[in-house]
Amino acid sequence: MTLAIHGGTPVRTTPWPAWPPPLDDAQRKLVTDVLDSGLWGATQGGSACADLTAAFARLSGVRYGVAVGNATLGLFAALRGLGVGPGDEVIVPAYTFVASATSVLLAGAVPVIVDVDPVDLHLTGAVVEAAVTGRTAAVMPVHLAGSPADMDDINAVAVRHGLKVVEDAAQAHGASYKGRPVGGLGDAGVYSFQASKAMTAGEGGLIVCRDEADHEAIWSVCNLGRKLGGQWYGHPNVGWNLRLTEIQAALLLPWLDRLDSEIARRNAFVAEVERGLAAIGLPEGYEGGARQPVSVVPQPPGTTLDSRHLLMLRVHVPYDRAFFLEAMAAEGVPLDGGYPPLGTMAALTEAGARPEPCPATEAASREVVWMRQSMLMDDPAHASHLVEALTKVLHA
């Protein structure tokens, strides 16, 4: 069978679902109401931002929330509000988006970049334990691709060493760990509403936390150093204007009503992918130990619900990565090459980040590819397109 990249017929010729999806009626009405009100800023007396923070706090199993301009600022504000600053170290995983590290630099602290579990690609308590020094102030587990990190494991190390825990839940809206929602499992959790996320307003973020004093400190960081409930021109702390707008909150609030059904749809698609991958035969002449050429990266221990922001796939057989990605795109099934290891980014190390050896992350950067969230929103029956394209390309 001739590959599409060599002139053959592509597996798929129809477009994948667009993201974000079209506005629903509830979004359209609430956005219009906010626009008509003229109360577009979060401090003008509207209710959308307040309603959104309250809803996300409930979603995360905690009492407090602060809506912010984006999740990078949210991670920065959470760290600063929890007392992390110059001279401190924050442990972050190497297989994550660059903002996990740059938010630490923005807070004036040092990102200590450590390896991830070689199987599920998440941060582990054992790796955190090995990286703790006398300067370590916090750890930032990342709920990668919508699956929760093993938080009991990480929290136990944090308690033992007196560390703050800031969950990077940017990709994990609605995910849960041992029956508990992510975001509320550490001292603070941060969600993203950037354009690719499961809930999006184009940009935006939200911090959740359980402790009232932590909430007041984080709120102050995001509101120009004001005291919650204090005078408008009183600024007892140093802070910044990091607020979300009412218009963005109006786009997001109605989304909460359909979040569960969208997560279920993505998981149904992934279930079909897993069934199909198990049936792909190994390439002719392959003599390695893999049972199948491609598999879904497994969920970490304790996962109750994976929100499936991304589908991470590991290729177990030798392949030309650049050609593979190009050939899959030609078949109408574009895949993403995923993250490079954070520790290989010169800009981070030049700014003060300290990378540890990360062999598991380096392997993931060679072997793991992603299927984007919008593709997972397709009819689960169309998971066969991914399986057919993988079979065609890997057997070519």
Automatic annotation (TrEMBL):
The modification N6-(pyridoxal phosphate)lysine is found at residue 197. Keywords: Pyridoxal phosphate. GO terms for biological process: polysaccharide biosynthetic process. Its cofactor is pyridoxal 5'-phosphate. SUPFAM superfamilies: PLP-dependent transferases. InterPro entries: DegT/StrS_aminotransferase (IPR000653), PyrdxlP-dep_Trfase (IPR015424), PyrdxlP-dep_Trfase_major (IPR015421), PyrdxlP-dep_Trfase_small (IPR015422). It holds the Pfam family DegT_DnrJ_EryC1. CDD domains: AHBA_syn. GO terms for molecular function: pyridoxal phosphate binding; transaminase activity. The active site is at 197 (proton acceptor). Belongs to the DegT/DnrJ/EryC1 family. This is dTDP-4-amino-4,6-dideoxygalactose transaminase. It comes from Nonomuraea endophytica.
